[in-house]
Amino acid sequence: MPEQPTMGPACQGKRGLPVHGAARAAADNPWVRPGVVVHDPAEVVDDLLADFALTLKRRGFNVAGFVQHNNRGCAGKGEGCAPRISYLDLGSGATVKVDRDDAVTYLQAAMRESTDLLVISHFSACLGATDSLHARFGPGAAPGLPLLTSIAGQCIHKWHCYARQEGTMLSPDLASLWAWWGPEHLYRDLALGVAAQEIRRIVCGPRWIMIEGPGGVGVAALPCHPRELLPRLPKLARRSLRELAALSASWDPLDMAVAIAAINAHYNRRDVDAPAGNGVRAFRHVPGQVVVVGAFPGVDGMLPNCALAEADPRPGRFPIVALDSLLPGCGAAVVNASALVNRSLPRLLRLARHRPVALVGPATPLSSRLHDYGLAVVAGFVVDDADGLAAAIRAGATAREFGRHGRFIHLPAAKKAADSPEAASFHKARSTIAG
Length: 435
Known about the structure:
alpha/beta, 2 domains, 15 helices, globular, disordered N terminus, DUF2478, DUF4213, DUF364, DUF2478 domain-containing protein
């Protein structure tokens, strides 16, 4: 049997960011959050699992586990696999051939890693590995390790016996996988993409914070008076954009504002080429009512008969608590970027699942990464006159006054991109084996 790849413990996340892996303390009795792709026995889902996992890996997440390359020599559809199985090791990218019992050993080692996602494409191997480690499905002291596997529909009773009510059954498509992965991960996803570049200046006013990097300027609305933040600014200015973006893991409101401004300084670059405006006019013709979360200048003219929800609602508008009823049945939703800073965005995306959602405002990161989390449109602000905006922010300018210092543009969700190099390599290897 070929030499098995070494799987040493990971001590630090990709790109130098702190490890956020859910399995860092899961050597004994790990708590897992399982999801299973239920498919027709004749349907191949290994490509789907590989595409999803390799996309996360390419973005900087720590991905471990195996995806099966071949399924030859079966006794029948959905009735097990060949005595020797070829796997793609998602961590190393190596293709390995192991016996079924040996595969369990590999998967046990993967579960002990500090991983963000563990993929065990074959359910029987998943069952063997989790049983060996006495994995638990239920509330724990830390977020459960996302564990993704697959099973043929005719064997679904085995899944129910395995996960009972704690697991999630998924349809075989990328949208379902991203929904299971969850919008809570979007903050770290954005932070992982930020380069370790120098900060040229930080400007803080009574309402907004501005961070300038080598390629662009980012802003974020301050959730409260910055009196506690001001003494920290000199020290923060000596750190990199990546380090400040990592503050998005904090629950401190001012840290979040700093993190979002740093994230925007990376993504909202001066050379971004995208359509002008916020793109919400396209929602005028969607069937059903458009729900607007937060105040926008001129929103009544852009979206007649919309339902507006605000923290301090004026007559004729809804309180924020009404979103629990408004969003699930809406035709579309437009969300102010303040929801990104106050961490309410993941909840809003879950409530409006399967509906087109736009994130709009100067603090919106112009990143296509957000599209995978359910945002059909991301509309943000690109600064052309950094000096002018800095002076305006110091003077207490509101978002209405930003327009003279830059431009509002939007990124609509694009069609599915071509395979990554890793995914293309996987498909080629699979075709070779099948042949």
